[in-house]
Amino acid sequence: MKHPTSIQIKRIKHFLELKDIDKQDLKDILTLGKQIKVMQEDRKYPSHPAQPLKGRSIALIFSKPSTRTRVSFEVGIHQLGGNPIVLSTNTMQIDRGETIADTARVLSRFVDGIVIRTGCTEHLTELAKLSSVPVINGLTPASHPGQVMADVMTFEEHKGPIKGRVIAWIGDGNNVANSFIEAATQFDFILKLATPSNYLPSKKVLAWAKSKGADIHLTTDPKEAAKNADCIVTDTWVSMSDNESEKQQRLNALPPYQVNQEIMRLAAPDAIFMHCLPAHIGQEVTANVFESSQSVVFDEAENRLHTHKAILIWALMGDNWRDYSSR
Ligand code: CP
Ligand code: NVA
Fold first, then answer.
1. Domain extent listing, the chain
2. Cα 63 to ligand 2 centroid, rounded to whole Å
3. Please, which contacts does 131-135 make with residues 24 or more away whose CB atoms are closer than 8 Å?
């Protein structure tokens, strides 16, 4: 009888936080996302022979509402030949008390990957710890990495390489802002964040970015952040996981951080405006900025589809994932 001389441990490729993923992999995921978009635009996609998810099922767990994340993953998995299974936690045993640990171990016996949007950040880490299939972060109160991958792709489509460029985040220091800090570190762009002093981004994420030498500037002055920026980005003042009782406090504190024409005039003349959506017109952004020619918000939404497909290929196709676009 032959005895193995070494034990091969298969590394599971979770897509949890941008800071935990190899820098080159992140860049290559974006390149693949751009190639996938071209294939689709050339209408090659329907007859494209490579359906890497053929015969595979991916569970999409949502404990919070979603339009873009849910539909882009569902359509993307379908286009890659796979079977998406959309699950709301209120129709699962999770909402009757079944643990995330048991859910992870059960789903791993059925599906080949799990996407999760949760209102509890620990659920993402617990799921990844116990799952034997890749787990993809579809938003937590702490981060939204898939969104920011699409944002970087959108910036590059409109403005060229993001390295060394200036992005201004104006508004709440929320989950999307945290992922922007990680993206600035991984993709080497300059990030200026203007937030009220009581709505700062995560101290832990800022400390990590600082330890990596990232070019991140914090201010409470939106005009200072906007000055000569290549892109102005904002998000809702009240996120899905924010405490309902603090809603009014936020709505009182954030109006000085509205992105309006005055802010856009301070940015570079050809600056773009981004927002992950859904938008609250008249709150974080005015209608004339949202609807202006500088606004690229719907390209940004579309790019969720292309980047999610690239993330799925990265997570599920093993070491040969980069070969996908040449098939
Ligand atoms: N931007 C974003 O994640 O949108 P949804 O909440 O609609 O998924
Ligand atoms: N910060 C927002 C993003 C929505 C996509 C939220 O968490 O509700």
1. 18-143+304-318, 145-300
2. 13
3. 131/12, 131/14, 131/104, 131/105, 131/107, 132/12, 132/105, 132/108, 133/12, 133/107, 133/108, 134/12, 134/13, 134/14, 134/15, 134/315, 134/316, 135/12, 135/14, 135/15, 135/16
CA of 50 to the centre of ligand 2 (A): 33
Average pLDDT over residues 153-166: 98
> Measured between alpha carbons, how far is 231 from 242 in angstroms, rounded to an integer?
26
Q: Atom of ligand 1 at shortest distance to CA of 69?
A: 8
Question: In the prediction, which pLDDT does 262 show?
Answer: 98
Measured in Å, residue 267 CA sits from the centre of ligand 2 at 24
CATH T-level topology, domain 18-143+304-318: Rossmann fold (3.40.50)
pLDDT in tens, 228-246: 999 999 999 999 999 999 9
144, 165, 275, 306: the active-site residue? 144
Residue 186 has pLDDT above 90, yes or no: yes
Q: Say if residues 77 and 53 touch (Cβ distance below 8 Å).
A: yes
Q: What is the pTM of this model?
A: 0.95
Do 145-300 and 18-143+304-318 fall under one CATH topology?
yes
| Nearest alpha-carbon partner for 167 in 216, 83, 232, 221 | 232
What are residue 136's DSSP bridge partners? 15, 115
Two tokens, residue 133: 């299939």
Query: Rounded to an integer, what distance in angstroms lies between the CA atom of residue 313 and that of residue 324?
Result: 8
Kindly report the CATH number that applies to the domain delimited by 145-300.
Answer: 3.40.50.1370
Residue 66, ligand 1, Cβ within 6 A: yes
Indicate whether residue 241 lines ligand 1 (CB < 6 A): no
* Model confidence pLDDT, tens digit, residues 314-326: 999 988 898 887 6
Binned at pLDDT 50, 70 and 90, residue 40 comes out as confident
Of the listed ligands, the closest to the CA of 176 is 2
| Residue 304 known to be catalytic | yes
Share of the chain above pLDDT 70, in %: 94
